[in-house]
TrEMBL record:
It catalyses: iminosuccinate + dihydroxyacetone phosphate = quinolinate + phosphate + 2 H2O + H(+). This is Quinolinate synthase. Coiled coil: none annotated. Catalyzes the condensation of iminoaspartate with dihydroxyacetone phosphate to form quinolinate. Its cofactor is [4Fe-4S] cluster. One of its GO terms (biological process) is 'de novo' NAD+ biosynthetic process from L-aspartate. NCBIfam families: nadA, PRK09375.1-1, PRK09375.1-2. One of its GO terms (cellular component) is cytosol. InterPro entries: NadA, NadA_sf.
Length: 319
């Protein structure tokens, strides 16, 4: 703990000295989340991270999260320096949707409006008409469906399936999944709910259908946090990455938070619901990127300008 305190103080010093701001996701290490809050940065979901980085005056953004979050920041703010504590921090959805195959999929269906989830590479976004995050996917697809558009959706099949069931839109889907949320088990959740009859069930929509169907609230990480604070219940069963519990406990100290099951036979694997790529973000990485300029995000200009359109369309829609 003393060493972590020293690292945190050093990172805070460097953030100030370099005129930088730390933009963190709820799944990263708790010390990094606290550091972001304490130094005037933000900790939030991927929509708010993109908005905050774009609007902040700092010319250096340190993005603690996974690669697509750093890329989105750079796409929206090309003149800013965007650094990440570890450039190898990626996402199974991004890895599972390579741009060549994705372009071929789009070429085969030219009549469809291309909607991609934020968790994709800049090259995939460059081909899309719209980008969405889990917090705004539903109203945006509802809007497109009302205009009579047919949709090509990528890459998360669970989020896509949820949106399709809710909106009735015609959606042709890529077959991707988040390796963390895909592990939540519907049957075991049913059993756990019986043990906690008063608990509210909060679910991130990257989870499988049987889990989503049991939810009281389905939403992005920021929306799930809001639900814990606002809902009138003592117990919550939460199906999302367990990095989220740090902020939930701080924001709602009197509430009991229970991890949704990720393993069969009622056995919850405590470390299963944690993204290995989010876990690569560390205080030392923040220090290294600010001290030595490690981990700078670069996006080729033609790709960046192409990708910018779909992100801006989303931000204008939610504004
Ligand atoms: P949110 O936009 O809900 O924060 O989701 C990002 C993510 O990667 C969830 O796994
Ligand atoms: Fe990607 Fe899942 Fe990790 Fe989120 S939790 S970054 S969707 S692998």
């Amino acid at each position: 703990p003393a060493q972590r305190r020293d690292l945190k103080a050093r990172a805070a010093e460097l953030i100030k000295a370099r005129g930088a701001v730390l933009v963190a996701h709820y799944y990263v290490d708790g010390d990094l989340q606290d550091l972001a809050v304490e130094t005037g940065g933000c900790v939030s979901d991927s929509l708010e991270m993109a908005r905050f980085g774009r609007d902040h005056a700092a010319q250096t953004l340190v993005v603690a999260g996974v690669r697509f979050m750093g890329e989105s920041a750079k796409i929206l703010s090309p003149a800013k320096r965007v650094l990440m504590p570890d450039l190898d921090a990626t996402c199974s959805l991004d890895l599972g949707c390579p741009s060549d195959a994705f372009n071929a999929f789009c070429d085969a269906h030219p009549d469809r409006t291309v909607v991609v989830y934020a968790n994709t590479s800049a090259a995939v976004k460059a081909r899309a008409d719209w980008m969405v995050t889990s917090s705004c996917a539903l109203p945006i697809v509802r809007h497109l469906h009302a205009q009579g558009r047919k949709i090509l959706w990528a890459p998360d099949r669970h989020l896509g399936g949820y949106i399709q069931r809710e909106t009735g839109a015609d959606m042709l889907m890529w077959n991707g999944a988040c390796i963390v949320h895909d592990e939540f088990k519907g049957l075991e959740l049913e059993l756990l709910r019986r043990e906690h009859p008063g608990a509210k069930i909060l679910v991130h929509p990257e989870s499988p259908q049987h889990v989503v169907e049991q939810a009281d609230v389905v939403g992005s990480t920021a929306q799930l946090l809001k639900a814990v604070i606002e809902l009138d219940a003592r117990e919550f069963i939460v199906a999302t990455d367990n990095g989220m519990f740090h902020r939930m406990r701080q924001a709602a100290p009197g509430k009991v938070l229970i991890e949704a099951p990720t393993a069969g036979n009622g056995a919850t694997c405590k470390s299963c619901a944690h993204c290995p790529w989010m876990a690569m973000n560390a205080l030392q990485g923040v220090i290294d990127c600010l001290e030595h300029g490690h981990g700078e995000i670069q996006v080729d200009e033609p790709v960046r300008t192409q990708a910018e359109g779909c992100i801006r369309r989303m931000l204008d829609f939610v504004a």
